[in-house]
Specification:
The protein has 173 residues and is of the alpha+beta class. It is 57% helix and 14% strand.
């Protein structure tokens, strides 16, 4: 018995579909998003103080000591939330609540994580210095090429916007 050509030829196979590769790209954070992020962070803190003041006024009248203690608790809670949101969270993750909501991340100038000490330096030393200069420290982020404000220069940080980028593997050579 002889084999015919049709029996020995390999069966045609479908080419495997090429899957697009997802990568993260980092872009300079737009100034408007940075403003929105800081606004969210401070709204959280002001809401805590406003709520404790409201409770204090509701408890006022005959319960003056209860009203004062609720204001004190609100202020202490706001300080703890500020330390957590502006120091510890960005030190560990690169996000504050506002930066997370707006899709921004704080990194060191070389792209690594900033750490808790640098986050405290950036937010609790750099931010007040940016305010003392009548806001010019913040405005520098809108005017400089790399988008770094005075607080970023002090802490050697940069704020980036991360976006998912789809790459076609055929274009990757």
């Amino acid at each position: 018995m002889t084999a015919t050509l049709a029996e020995t030829a390999p069966l045609p196979t479908k080419p495997k579909p090429r899957v697009a590769i997802q990568t993260m790209a980092r872009f300079r954070a737009p100034f408007s998003l940075r403003c929105g992020a800081i606004l969210i962070d401070y709204i959280i803190l002001v809401a805590i103080v406003a709520f404790s003041t409201l409770v204090s006024r509701l408890l006022g009248g005959g319960a003056r000591s209860a009203g004062n203690s609720s204001e004190t608790i609100g202020i202490l809670l706001a300080i703890m939330v500020a330390a957590l949101n502006l120091g510890i969270l960005p030190g560990l993750t690169g996000f504050t609540a506002g930066k997370w909501a707006s899709g921004l991340r704080i990194l060191r100038d070389d792209g690594s994580a900033i750490g808790i000490g640098r986050a405290f330096l950036r937010h609790f030393v750099g931010y007040p210095l940016s305010l003392v200069t009548l806001g010019l420290g913040f405005l520098a982020a809108a005017l400089t090429v790399r988008g770094r404000g005075l607080h970023d220069l002090i802490a050697n940080t940069i704020v980036v916007r991360e976006a998912r980028v789809m790459r076609d593997p055929r274009a990757m050579g």
